[in-house]
Amino acid sequence: MNEFTHIDAKGNAVMVDVIGKVPTTRTAVATGRITMSGECYEAIKNGAMKKGDVLGVARIGGIMGAKQTSSLIPLCHILNLTKCGVDFIFHDEERAIEARSTVKCDGRTGVEMEALTGVSVALLTVYDMCKAVDKRMVIADIHLVEKIGGKSGHFKYEQGSGSV
Predict the structure, then answer these.
(1) CA pair distance 88, 125, nearest whole angstrom
(2) Where are the domains of the chain?
(3) Could you read off the pLDDT of 136-157 as tens digits, one per residue?
(4) 100-129 residue pLDDT tens
(5) 13: left (phi over 0), alpha (psi -120 to 50) or beta
(6) What is the pTM of this model?
(7) Catalytic-labelled residue, pool 87, 128, 134, 141
(8) Cβ distance 130 to 151 under 8 Å?
(9) Could you tell me the maximum CA-CA distance found in the chain, to the nearest angstrom?
(10) Interatomic CA distance for residues 163 and 153, integer angstroms
């Protein structure tokens, strides 16, 4: 029996057939952060970046990215998302902005990739809008925080319990 769901018996990459799965409400939350210079951090926090509302544009970018996940990640299913939000948390001591994406759907497959893509695109948008001020920004720690629904049940990231 093949243990990899995206590979058939001949070793070919395939899209998983989820027709036999029962549709359930599925939620995924992902997070990541971008660290930067003090000048750049303060400009974003005070709404003083020349390109405009950095986090407002990054929020829209993250939502758009989540909605386009199946176009970006090979073999991802097209999902009818029922919620997609991106929030930001300032971490003054680290000069870091944390992006947090929450995605929901009623479906046969999970929304983890959509949440992770949403966070990634939101952080890339921050970088794009601020690179004139700080090209040394670092995007890091993108990971799944929580997943609810589906056959595998509830997953919650515990600091120090995984690969990180």
Answers:
(1) 13
(2) 28-156
(3) 999 999 999 999 998 888 999 9
(4) 999 999 999 999 999 999 999 999 999 999
(5) beta
(6) 0.91
(7) 128
(8) no
(9) 58
(10) 20
Q: Tokens 């995924």 sit at which residue? A: 28
Q: In what order do the strands lie in the sheet containing 96-107?
A: 81-91, 96-107, 24-35, 138-148, 155-156
* 87 catalytically annotated: no
Residue closest to 140 by CA, chosen among 31, 30, 33 = 33
Percent of the chain at pLDDT exceeding 90: 78
Task: Bin 127: left if φ > 0, else alpha if -120 < ψ < 50, else beta.
Answer: alpha
Between CA 52 and CA 46 the distance in angstroms is: 11
Give the CATH class of 28-156: alpha beta
Question: Residue 65 in contact with residue 126, Cβ under 8 Å?
Answer: no
